[in-house]
Amino acid sequence: MDQKKIAELLQFDRDHIWHPYTSIDHPLPVFFVESAEGVRIRLSDGRQLIDGMASWWSVIHGYNNPHLTLTLQEQAGRLSHVMFGGLTHGPAIELAQLLIGLVPAGLNRVFFCDSGSVAVEVAMKMAIQHAFARGLSGKNRFLTIRSGYHGDTFHAMAVCDPEGGMHRIYQGILPRYFFAEMPRCRFTDEWDEADIHSFESLLATHHRSICAVILEPIVQGAGGMRFYHPEYLKKVRRLCDEYQVLLIADEIATGFGRSGRMFGCDHAGISPDILCLGKALTGGYMTLAAVLATEEIGHVISQGEPGVFMHGPTFMANPLACSVAIRSIQLLLDGDWKNNITRIEEGLRQGLEPCRNLPGVSDVRVLGAIGVVELDRPVVMARIQNLFVENGVWIRPFGRLVYVMPPYIINDADLRTLTAALCRVVALEVSV
Ligand SMILES: *Cc1c(COP(=O)(O)O)cnc(C)c1O
User: Which amino acid residue places its CA nearest to atom 15 of ligand 1?
Assistant: First the structure.
């Protein structure tokens, strides 16, 4: 496309289209993507960027993956969509079978929905209906931990970190839930029993009104990119059982190998009662999410009032999305995913280490295929975003966090280029 045409399109974009968390009056520039292949995003001016974001955790097998593209094309020739009320199809059934075999044990009731935030809403509704069906209608509140992120819809917002999130604006509209202190003990620290006290005492005091705990297992994503101790999660599981409160694991970011185990829960060897999946579920091709629950939850909900689970999105179990999800999971399982994540983890560790001694850098941490450089003050987005693009990489920081979670197919040379560019740009950023 010629540059004049591109400039016109960018102007239209600027004049008429919302972007995520972006001002209409003072938008930062957006870059025009023409195509993407493997780990490379190609801009309209011909520049190629090595992708460090996997498009927000999702594009694990790289862009335009030939297997996924072919699967999608073939499925489109058979059945792109059909309503899920009263009808079913192969892709939904096969995907459910795959997921049940893959997730922590005991979760064998699958609800498909459109996006991560909706999956969180669905999971929270399940917990409320579960309590209601048991005749405990006052047991309808949630306990979570600070620094969490669970999505942008209303009940998801209500369990996002109250400071980093949107609580202030929506005060009075959002229900007030319980927030335990964020876990302090890091993934690699020695376990400190005091870490669970805040959580334990909230649960002990309020368990009668709490239907479920919701949290991100091990990796807290958009709420702070923190990795906490597996013992914390084990304790949470034990306490939930003790106080008869359901445990919802939001694995929308951590699912499908990102943290070095297939699921965050696997680090602690626990099973939640309800599990949310999304993001990488379709290899980043389509929007799709899944909520898995135990048999018991399904039956209790069905035996109480009104005898059904009250949710049913228009695009529930979309066949295109289900078929590409099946193929994506097969690709993951067919490859040596675990050693591959270890390889990326090593590359990130070595590659990001030089940042540690920079003034203005407060922490460098890596878990699985996630690398984080935390600064002591927020980045200047307009400046740093341009610097990354000029250095040939796509990295999009937020606040004080500069982080990468590249597609799993990234090779060692590209990974070195990515981390070297990150260190170079961070050095410039903190020197200003
Ligand atoms: C991204 C994310 C969500 C929300 O998913 P969307 O598809 O953006 O609605 C929820 N929980 C976690 C942990 C996430 O990372």
Answer: 253
Question: Catalytic residue at 149?
Answer: yes
The whole domain housing 101 covers: 68-334
Q: Residue 147 belongs to a domain with what CATH number?
A: 3.40.640.10
| Ligand 1 midpoint to CA 132 (Å) | 26
CB-based burial label for 31 (10 Å; 0-12, 13-18, 19+): middle
**End-of-domain residue from the set 334, 369, 398:** 334
Q: What is the pLDDT of residue 305?
A: 85
Q: pLDDT of 140-176, one tens digit each?
A: 999 999 999 999 999 999 999 988 777 778 888 999 9
Is 250 one of the catalytic residues? yes
What is residue 190's DSSP assignment? Answer: P
**Which of these is catalytic: 51, 114, 139, 149?**
149
Kindly report, residue by residue over 379-391, the tens digit of the pLDDT: 999 999 999 999 9
* Cα(231)–Cα(386) distance, integer angstroms: 41
- C-beta 115 within 6 A of ligand 1: yes
Residue whose C-alpha is closest to residue 80's, from 321, 327, 330, 329: 321
Per the structure, how many domains does the chain have?
A: 2
Query: CATH number of the domain that 382 lies in?
Result: 3.90.1150.10
Last residue of a domain, one of 288, 308, 334: 334
Cβ neighbour number for residue 274 with a 10 Å cutoff? 26
Query: Residue 186 has what pLDDT?
Result: 98
Active site residue 232: no
Residue 112 lies in a domain: yes
Q: Give the three-class secondary structure for 133.
A: helix
Q: What is the pTM of this model?
A: 0.98
In a domain, 44, yes or no: yes
Same domain, 233 and 360: no
What is the arithmetic mean of pLDDT over 28-32?
A: 94
Q: What is the pLDDT of residue 171?
A: 81
